[in-house]
Amino acid sequence: MSHLDSQRTTAGALLADIDANASALGPAWGTPLVSFAYPFGRVTPRSARVLGERFMTCRGNRPGLNGRETDAANLRANVLYGGRFDTNAIGRLIEAAVSTNSWLVFYTHDIQDNPSPYGCTPGQFKQVVAMSARRTRILPVKEAAKLAAQATA
User: Fold this and answer.
1) For 9-31, what is each residue's pLDDT tens digit?
2) Rounded distance, CA 146 to CA 153, Å?
3) Which of 14, 35, 78, 148 has a CA between 20 and 30 Å from the CA of residue 141?
4) Domain range for residue 64?
5) Number of folded domains in the chain?
6) Is 3 within the bounds of a domain?
7) Whose CA is closest to 72, among 151, 150, 153, 148?
8) Cβ atoms within 10 A of the Cβ of 116, count?
9) 42 is a domain residue
10) What is the Cα–Cα distance from 74 to 54, expressed in whole angstroms?
11) What is the pLDDT of residues 104-133, one digit of tens each?
12) Could you tell me what percentage of the chain is helix, strand and coil, using 3-state DSSP and rounding each to the nearest 5?
């Protein structure tokens, strides 16, 4: 709700803010919130423990693949920001995920013709989706996490 930095707030304040967010979004969303993105990508051991108990998955901003030893309270996630958009690097990342039977999380903040510094264009986003779809299934994080948990059980 307030985009609190988990490195600079107490666990109680963080949970209260998440409760306010759920109250505001719950009726519109129509389903419980099961995933969390750490504001600013900042994760502490305390926030990972507290929020890992609350959400099915949480993600920071450590790039890379999620595989058999994935920490669901601190998933690796890969940025899609227009100013840093590298088609070749994204393609290599997708190929690495396929070859190691891992999964990827991509994130951005906005998708529009003139994105913020933290967003990408519709064309860039479509390119990532198309590249991914050619090599693997595209799933919501919740579904990917369920499949990963089943594979390690």
Assistant:
1) 998 999 999 999 888 887 887 87
2) 11
3) 14
4) 11-152
5) 1
6) no
7) 148
8) 13
9) yes
10) 13
11) 999 999 999 999 999 999 999 999 999 999
12) 50, 10, 40
Q: What six digits make up the tokens of 54? A: 């609350």
User: Looking at the domain assignment, is residue 56 inside a domain?
Assistant: yes
Q: What is the SS3 assignment for 32?
A: coil
Q: In this predicted structure, what is the pLDDT of residue 153?
A: 64
- Give pTM, 2 decimals: 0.88
Other residues' Cβ atoms within 10 Å of the Cβ of residue 145: 22
Q: Which amino acid is at 82?
A: G
Q: How many helices (H) and strands (E) does the chain have?
A: 5, 4
Q: Examine residue 5 and state whether it is found in any structural domain, yes or no.
A: no
Q: How many CB atoms lie within 10 A of CB 5?
A: 15
Token match 């690495």: residue?
A: 96
**Who contacts 103 (Cβ-Cβ below 8 Å, separation ≥6)?**
65, 66, 67, 97, 144, 148
Say how far apart CA 23 and CA 101 lie, in whole Å. 37
